Amino acid sequence: MGISTGQDLWYEPGTNWSYSHANFVLLGAALEKITGTRLDHLLQQEVTGPLGLHETRNSFTPDIPTPVLHAFTSERGKYEESTFWNPSWTTAPGAVETTDICDLARSAVGIGSGELLSPSSYRELLNPGTVGLGTPTPKCPATICIAQTEATHYGTGVLVLNDWISQHPLFFGYSASQDYLPCEHLAIAVSTTDGPTAPGGHSAHTIAQRIAAALAPDHPIPDFG
After folding, report:
1. Is 204 exposed, middle or buried (0-12, 13-18, 19+ CB in 10 A)?
2. β-bridge partners, 176
3. pTM for the whole structure
4. Average pLDDT in the 89-93 region?
5. Which of 77, 98, 156, 178 has the fewest C-beta atoms lying within 10 Å of its C-beta?
6. What gap in Å lies between CA 176 and CA 167, rounded to an integer?
7. What count of other Cβ atoms lies within 10 Å of the Cβ of residue 26?
8. Chain-centre distance of CA 154, in angstroms?
9. Does the pLDDT value for residue 128 go beyond 90?
10. SS3 string of the chain?
11. Average pLDDT over residues 163-184
12. Which residues pair with 179 in a beta bridge?
């Protein structure tokens, strides 16, 4: 955390926006301090348990319960297996979880519908004050300080993409996309891995966009970020 918080600010807090996993590390530490509960246990009690996500878990190791969707990547200059690379350095301890495609779809519904939230918390989830922020500066280019508009912006741990509430993580050969369209009660879940000649980028999200175009042609999922 000191690597992040010890650097000079790019802008005054609340005046601009850029994505940072340091936010999740801080939130995880705050939640554990406030509740006195280890983060993985807290997530199970408050989120994965109530949503019935029985195949979603944290093992605190790079192990993934079988059956495993194996991943491969060329990010280190050679095409190699990356299935059990440890992503724990990317976020708060206890927050890295494995899942299956059914739980991914169920979480898209639960999170996207605000099932576990009050109406006011759900509004905060979708716009915690990000809309209107995101202005390039000499220290923060447009690819980092991305414009947050009503149509496309970051909420609290989710992406608002027109009418869809989404998230599309990408990590060392793995790509996933979960998307929920509240007005149609439609959820999409996709998980992919990269082949040796894969073009890169969010392949799962690209597939999700194509599925959305077929199932809800009046509600396309836009590119963002």
Report:
1. buried
2. 191
3. 0.91
4. 82
5. 77
6. 8
7. 15
8. 10
9. yes
10. CHHHHCCCCCCCCCCCCCCCCHHHHHHHHHHHHHHCCCHHHHHHHHHHCCCCCCCCECCCCCCCCCCCCCCEECCCCCCEECCCCCCHHHCCCCCCCECCHHHHHHHHHHHHCCCCCCHHHHHHHHCCCCCCCCCCCCCCCCCCCCCCCCCEEECCCCEEECCEEEECCEECCEEEEEEEEHHHCEEEEEEEECCCCCCCCCHHHHHHHHHHHHHCCCCCCCCCC
11. 94
12. 166, 188
According to the model, what pLDDT value does residue 3 have?
66
Amino acid at 38: R
- The residue assigned the tokens 């301090």 is 33
Is 114 in contact with 127 (CB distance < 8 Å)?
A: no
Top mean pLDDT of 11-25, 100-114, 193-207 is at: 100-114
- Strands 159-161, 164-167: pairing is antiparallel
45 touches 35 (CB < 8 A): no
